[in-house]
Here is the input.
Amino acid sequence: IAAPRRALAALFLPPLPSRSILNSKSHRLPTGWSSSSSSSSSSSSRHSSSGSSSSSGWRRFSDRSRAATASCLAATAAGAALWSYRESVLVAETAGKENEPLTLSCDQTQPPMVASKHYKYVLIAHPRAVVAQAALTQLTEFDPDAAVLVVADKYNMDDTGGAGSRIYTANVHDYYTMNKLRSKKNDEIAPSTSKPKDTSSRENITSFTMSKSSLDPTLPVVKPIEDLAKNIEVCKTAFAVRMDAENKTIELSDGTVVSFGKCLLATGCREGKMPDVPDSLRSHVTNLRKVKDFDRVQTLVSEGRVQRIVVVGGGFLGCEVATKLASAGKDKGVEVVHAYVEPGALYRYVPVYFSDYVTERLRGFGVQERPYTMVLSMQQPADVSHNLQLVLQGFDKTALDCGHVVFAPTHLEGNVELAKHSGLEIDTKCGGVMVNSELMARTDIYVAGDTASYPDRVLGRRRMQSFDHSFHSGLLAGANMALTQRKAYNHLPVITSAGGPLDLDIVVLGDIDSNMEMYSIAQMEQSNSDSSEAVLHHWEKWQKGIVYYLRDRKVVGAMLINVTERTDDVRRLIRSGLKYRHRTEQGIPELEDAINLNFADPTCRHSSAKGVGLMRNPSGEKKA
Here is the structure.
């Protein structure tokens, strides 16, 4: 208290006069002050009148100073008492905890987390996801002695089911099998070979999420967990609920807290759900995401347990599922209805003429196409032979009774809930976690797979959903975590779609959007007029071809149809940034000569922004 008192006194009391001022005759001192002990009575008498006036003024000033000083001292005493009370509270809280470690947290809204065990690497992902397996392969190769923990988030932990699902409730070694492919002939699981063409960590509904191109032989072979290092721990009883990015700790659902040196976040996508489904009808609606979902629906159709099934979604996955269900239920007389809001199948991704072609092919296989149709609601059916009734809005509002509904969205939202709560930056446009070119979201925190929103040096920031992207991004993330010299992610992943009975094996690279300028080069096959297929408007049957997608005359994407062997050539073409300069009535020679497709009689067509475009053959003959 003494120091504040001296400071306040210096602030409110007048300073002492200097010796020169005291010796000055013109200076009048307050009462009781004198310039010398030998002052005469005459000088005192001369100043007596003025001294009495100065004395009263000084008294008033001193009263105000003392009052202000007392107020400040009272405030200081109150602050000291508050500080003493805070110290007493801290002493009471820490009583009996002198030997516990001290933890500091920058987040004052959450209590600090004390780690019970430290791992050099922690992977927050499904242990059977291809991105996790690829990362583990690199980590165990470059840092074989490091302790690694694999733990899922709540979404993946709650995802229950049987074969091909995302759940792991028992020992991973009991049912985890790596390098399995779905057989195209009998739709059964085929055993893997020593050098498989594709390495997938779980089965796929179709080949939509798998890369049909051969993997680079220089890439490491992804191995199952049981063949990797023995110091990999898989948490099967709890899931990650919170990550402290500042202190590098992760809290699990059972209260356990672990710390990490580096972390990989690969939580994938969330399941797309049909909106506004009543609880009483949920058992008759399948949100297509996993193999077990498709197996259940295919069983309903193949056994004839439903008379009519509705597939909602006009993208690649919706077209594949509608075609396969129509083939599976043909013998049982099951009616397959394909409903979507677009004017035609694949309308958002392909030119209008190809959308019309696919729509007509689907109708030729017995699929009832319902374009311009939106599902408004679901309710109990009027016909007791069906399970539910759909209220549809097209040009008119109608009702449709059916036995089951399949929701097949092509694009899914990223599972970013844990990342958002951990303070990582979320891309509001792409819906993923923002990372740099090295797949790093923050220092020592990496994100890969479907969750990552990464920058592409040619196409810009993007988020991909495919096996090819998960595989390569997992490899790079694992290598960057284990090595001191990090590399950028420059791989251009592909998305594939197998049309099944449509005989369309499609590979997509880069950006595809029907709002772009498009140029197609195709080899046509004349359809048999006596066949049962529907007569196709404008086009013969597509045998093979390429559709280029251009932005400002620059190739930014491509769709390959039955020419998957040219995938690497098209990838290099997009990476080169080819931009055509001249366009003639005969077409765009720069695009036609970019890749030698060896088509005998190619047909080219140029369109822009969903336009019908102009079709021609090499002779320059225009077709209607």
User: Anything to note?
Assistant: The longest helix spans residues 48-93. DSSP finds 14 helices and 29 strands in the chain.
